[in-house]
Fold:
Amino acid sequence: MTAESWDERYRSAELVWGAEPNQFIRQQCQGFTVGEALDLACGEGRNTLWLARLGWRVLGLDCSPVAIERARSLTANEPDDVARRTTWRVADLTTDPPRPRLADLVVISYLHLPSAQWTSLSRSAARAVKPGGHLVVVGHDVSNLTSGVGGPQEAGLLYSPAHLALLVTGEGLRVELADTVERRTAQGTALDTLVRAQRPLDRG
Structure:
């Protein structure tokens, strides 16, 4: 989907993804020591704002100006300390990826791109993790096509735990979790890829 298509989707509902953080992002990140975080393809900011409430300094990036404007509006309703820890920016991550060693935590939640773009971005996301920091990625699993509900219906847009683990390992991360997980929805059970990886501390 283009940025314009996402703009139309965000205009079509008050909160497309709801206000609560993704359950797997919450589950995996709530115990981490706070620091600098990146939320790639942040949408309306549900994960970004949740992290900021925990004390993280978070940069939320998305290609949709409508989503970022809504995220800024939601931030205005937060306490001052949360608002100060939150920054929003419109960015096309396929042409403007994050810089290496930028954050203690990088999260990606349901960002689906054609295979070549996703491979490049996932590697950039892994490189953006500082020593000791984490990458947490969740998205629709390729097995969801035949055994789950919802999500993209093109295999080339879907995730595989083994493939994603291979990509981030190639960028120096140590994979701590790479699995297909179940997510309950009103339509039935969806299947997601969930990967958590850490960059080892530099030894010097």
Q: What stands out?
A: The longest helix spans residues 115-127.
